[in-house]
Amino acid sequence: MIENLPRFPGAIWLTLLMGLGLNNVPLPPEWSYWRPDFVVLSLIHWALCMRQNLNLFVAFFMGLLADTISYSLLGQHALGYVLVSYLAVRLSLRMSAEAFLQQFALIFIVVGIFMLINLWIRGVTGNVGPGLLYWMPLLSSLLVWPIYHGILGYFYVPRKMV
Amino acid sequence: MAVDYRNPAATKPVRTGFAIVAYPLQRIVDAPFNLYTKVTGFFANQAHLASENAALKEQLRLYSVQYRDMQVLEQQNARLRDLLKVDKRVGYTFTMAEVIAASDERGRQVVTLNKGSRDGVHEKQVVLAEGGNIYGQVVEVTPFSSKVMELTDRQHAIPVRNLRTGMRALASGTGKADILELKSIVAGSNVQDGDVFVSSGLDMLFPPDFPVAKVIANGVQYIPGDPFANISAKPLINFDNTREVLLLWRISPSPAEMLPALSTTPASAAKPVDTKNKKDEKPKKDEKPANKPTTANKPVERPQ
């Protein structure tokens, strides 16, 4: 069995913060509709590669941070991120980390659930989204995933267990 | 989440704490853009700079003369107000702040500024931009940064007045950066395309007579069966491109002092438009005693 280890202590934190940073890079409005949630992609990446190291409290903390930055309802992203980590870890056991088609299916499901929950929370609090455009990140997540997955590959080292 | 929705004040400490944690991250994300602005500024064309400098100098000269005239007017105004036993006029001071981050949440138009409570920023402070147009108000303050809700945020509304007719209305945000909505306007009220709406100051928060929005072409719409007209107006600020904003401090001890300043507006032309939003509005100036004792001489809380 192959077990992966973080390249340096705090690698997970660093990538999650990096994802949060990427989420907040200013973009023109017509582009920002296409921006995938990079924190979600990071969480999925770590769920696939190092599921034993992914901490739900870290995901929750990141969610609260994202909520304060975007001034959304406190806990909206936090709930989403925790669910994403949980689902990704559960589903990652059923597939090989190398098969891209399976990964795409996983991302499609997990990101879809994340966005659906966000949409529900927004709907309940009276903040209705812009229709079909809301779902564009679902597509762009799939497009960005191979590149982002490759970049994040730097942050862990595979180790052979005896 | 429920607590935050029902009672935002309860979760405020949590928000502030996380905002402090998030501030370095926001600075890091902003750093490349900041650097780009600085570098392009450094390598700007010399001839262009020189001509710009000349133009600015000329403008400054013009403004300094106008300012002198303004000072004379102000003194005259103060003297006349004294004679009439009316409260002193409210003055303002400004500080520049920079937008370092914008919210990515749909329907949210909230930006982060690089000035916080240590610079004297407080909640519900008014923010202006480009040529003195109203930008929004401060909703959250940390020691280093503050969050400003723009006029176009879905949860924001500002009482406005039609510059042409004096009709009052409430301009609420739509969540889109370029459209404000004026709801519940009585059909048949005189609003035309191109009308400019200025702040009315009835909320005791925004200073009166600052430009807010302009009705867009075909912006006045009637839906059959609806007794009210829906009016779309375009804010006078390009919210997507604004990077520098002005924080505004009122040189007056309390907002209550603002009322007499309102009497300079054409009050006779102002009519109440709707009954729905009435309860949000403060009592009209006519009902206030015209000459109440002046307390405007108290020290002002000013930025350092």
Summarize this, please?
The complex is a heterodimer of chains A (162) and B (304). Chain A has seven helices and two strands.
Strand element count of chain A: 2
The number of distinct helices of chain B, counting runs of at least 4 residues, comes to 4
Number of domains of chain B: 2
Radius of gyration of chain B: 21 Å
Give me the CATH architecture of the largest domain in chain B, please.
Answer: Beta Barrel
End-to-end Cα distance of chain B, whole Å, is 37 Å
User: Main β-sheet of chain A, in a few words?
Assistant: 2 strands, antiparallel
Q: SSE order of chain A in H/E notation?
A: EHHHHHHHE
Q: How big is the Rg of chain A?
A: 15 Å
CATH superfamily (homologous) name of the largest domain in chain B: Rod shape-determining protein MreC, domain 1
CATH topology-level name of the largest domain in chain B: Thrombin, subunit H
CATH class of the largest domain in chain B: Mainly Beta
Q: Which secondary-structure class do the elements of chain A indicate?
A: mainly alpha
Helix content of chain B: 25-40%
Distance between the termini of chain A: 8 Å
Secondary-structure element series of chain B? HHHEEEEEEEEEEEEH
How many helix segments of chain A?
7
The largest sheet of chain B is:
6 strands, antiparallel, barrel
Shape designation of chain A:
globular
What would you call the shape of chain B? globular
By oligomeric state, this entry counts as heterodimer
Describe the overall structure:
- Chain A is mainly α and 162 residues long.
- Chain A has one domain: Arp2/3 complex 21 kDa subunit ARPC3 (Orthogonal Bundle).
- Chain A is built from 7 helices and 2 strands.
- Chain A has a two-stranded antiparallel sheet.
- Chain B folds into 2 domains: 40 residues; 186 residues, Thrombin, subunit H.
- Chain B has 304 residues and is an alpha+beta fold.
- The radius of gyration of chain B is 21 Å and the shape is globular.
- Chain B has 4 helices and 12 strands, in the order αααββββββββββββα.
- Chain B is 26% helix and 28% strand.
- In chain B, the strands form 2 sheets. Chain B has a 6-stranded antiparallel barrel with strand order 1-2-5-4-3-12. Chain B has a 6-stranded antiparallel barrel with strand order 6-7-8-11-10-9.
- Classes of the chains: A mainly alpha (162), B alpha+beta (304).
